Amino acid sequence: MTNELQGVQFGAGWFDEERDEIFSFRWMGREAEVTLAPGGAYLAFHAYSEFVDASQVLTVRTGGALLAELPLLHQWTPYGVELPAGAGAVTFTLNKLFPREYYPDDSRALGIRVAEVRRHGDAEAHGAARAFHANAVLNVSETLERAVVLRSHPLSLGIDLHAKCNMVPLCVYCHFEVDKVAEGPFGDAVVDAAALEGYGEFLRAARHLVNCSIGEPLLHPRLGEVLDLLERRGKFLEMSTNGLSLTRRAVEQLAGRKIFLYVSLDAGTREIYARIRNERFDLIVEQLKALAALRRGRGGWPKLYMVFMPMQVNRCDLAAYFHLCRDLEADAIVLRPLNVLEKRQPVVRRADYAFEYHREHLTPAEQEALFGEAMRLSEATGVRVLNQFFFGSPTGTQAAGEGAGVASPSGVEAKPDLGHGRLPLCREPWQNYYILRRGIMPCCYGGDKIAPMDRWEEAWNSRALHEIRAHLADGRFSRYCLESLACPIVQRHALQRKPDSAEMRQPAWLRLAKAVNRAALGLPGRAWRRLKG
After folding, report:
1. Percentage above 70 pLDDT, the chain
2. Does any domain span residue 406?
3. Which of 18, 33, 84, 233 lies in the 20 to 30 Å Cα band around 324?
4. Per-residue pLDDT for 495 more than 90?
5. Model pLDDT, residue 513
6. Residues 129/181, Cβ–Cβ less than 8 Å
7. How far, in Å, CA of 94 to CA of 108, rounded?
8. pTM for this prediction
9. What is the edge-to-edge ordering of all strands in the sheet holding 432-436?
């Protein structure tokens, strides 16, 4: 950290500097002191609390005078404190520590991680940090209260940057044509920096943005302007790419940006890649090597997450994938589940392989074996694993940037709760929101849209979202959730449900009707609703 060069000196209560995936930081104990050189009227810093319920509070004082009491948020979050004239030493005090049960082999008493401590005079930046924090605390409070109507805005915003893809032929599991039909009149909608600015409070309130395009974002003609906007606003961006467009120009554009870049490769060898996509494996690997070399000198940004979707076609390639990712200096391998679909998909023949979608899912036993192999390979190669099969689980992988990995539920009950027990079954409809060409989605695994793209503002507190939140608040899934078959949370609860569960059980005729309705793009259902009403 260069804080000393910025006129900030760390006094008593701080531990030695460390580095995680995002920042160089210092742990503090119960109380710590920083000394500030004369300068601007504001103190800014990032902090990371291990608690998810904002129950850990940081008190900031100078000369005994109270400056702020800040409920702390999970993940890295910016904070701002106004300083009185002549302020020098500032004291940070926590109401509670990170429970020692989570780091039994560490003799230190740890509180929070703190990074990027600085003094400045930018009133606008200070106001933005304060406004972000106020909304975030309100959002966490409304999530814990299971409020149905929200006054806060979501902490994560899904966006749809680009609608065209350069993968020819399409990936064997892709449903590009169906998704393009779903986009309807918004297929050509322009999503650029000006459009994102137009999202107003939804953009200002978001800690990070997630690109959920059915398309290749690196093809966006004004991507640089979008990245500049997000950098000015201090936002993190999650973005997925197939890797084909990682040209030298694209790599230069991405290097040094606060981006979590997901590269969907799914194969560690050219033979398996050819079965899934095409013959351009070697080209993509060379481009990824160029990215690895350039980001070394740009603070390790963008973070490189290599996606592996375990299927029958590639399960034999896991070891090769880990070794490839080690060579590419990847930050993590992401295990991502293949979506569950009701409608039987046609067989796709590629290279020497016949890809039958409904036969490609691994069984629970095969998944468990693969997860164990992944952990062994992770230890052998040093490549971290993020397992999205555990999406929504307190002990599983969280969103990119949270620092969680594959975790076993064994023994977790013996540790103090960090607030997970106060959360609803799923946080998505409270804390995440997706403004996409194919419609407004309440979660990343949503099946059907709840409103068209241009109704994004009113849909946040629409009847559809109220119903979803109300069911989750009551510990149940709404019909929308139950029909979103790809959701790992719903799948886990379906496996755990009692055989006579009225909520999860549906008659065969209803399942058949839904399948027919989806196959016909919802036309029968719309016709039936018109006849009824």
Report:
1. 87
2. no
3. 18
4. no
5. 46
6. no
7. 15
8. 0.86
9. 384-387, 332-335, 303-308, 259-264, 236-241, 208-211, 156-159, 432-436, 439-441
